[in-house]
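Private note to self, pasted from the team thread so I don't lose it. Backbone tokens:
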């Protein structure tokens, strides 16, 4: 899987476009957050896209991260072990992805296992981790470690309750989306079918 040769033509153009979406500044923020969140359980990665991919590739860092967002002893990934075998690494990545979805990340915001393991779409991996950080901040359960300003703030529900009287008042108002008849006049209009007067 990871031993593919270089791509050419359209495949190369598509891969270059995907690679351009990778954000080195976001990488630094994510590394700082993961190191703070995992509180010394993980080592510092080598800088750059490839270093970031190698750091996350075996899935142990990701599993420690998702476990740290749950109360101690209640982490969704029970067994975390480093392994050099490809299928074990991909299995741990899959466990992280399933746990992230249960945590509240939308399925459309989650990367595919091969995106990380083969390093084909690291920008998608960044987006998933950014969404996870934003959700952890928004939950406000005290388990997030780090600066909440590192991540965009998630919108929160702001439900409004109106009384019956207020709802009935609203039915009497004609919204401007329905149009208005102010200023409308038929002055100067002639009936349909009448000839136009040319002077």
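Design output:
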């Amino acid at each position: 899987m990871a031993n593919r040769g270089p791509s050419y033509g359209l495949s190369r153009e598509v891969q270059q476009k995907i690679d351009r979406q990778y954000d080195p500044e976001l990488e630094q923020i994510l590394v700082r957050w993961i190191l703070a969140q995992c509180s010394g359980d993980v080592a510092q990665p080598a800088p750059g896209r490839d270093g970031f991919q190698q750091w996350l590739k075996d899935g142990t860092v990701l599993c420690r991260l998702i476990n740290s967002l749950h109360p101690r002893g209640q982490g969704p990934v029970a067994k975390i072990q480093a392994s050099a075998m490809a299928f074990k690494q991909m299995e741990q990545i899959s466990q992280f992805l399933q746990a992230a979805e249960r945590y509240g990340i939308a399925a459309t915001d989650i990367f595919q296992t091969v995106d990380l393991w083969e390093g084909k779409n690291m920008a998608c991996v960044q987006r998933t981790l950014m969404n996870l950080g934003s959700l952890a901040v928004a939950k406000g359960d005290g388990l997030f470690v780090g600066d909440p300003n590192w991540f965009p703030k998630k919108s929160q529900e702001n439900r409004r309750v109106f009384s019956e009287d207020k709802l009935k008042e609203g039915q009497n108002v004609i919204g401007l989306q329905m149009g208005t008849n102010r200023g409308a006049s038929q002055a100067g209009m002639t009936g349909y079918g009448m000839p136009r007067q040319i002077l």
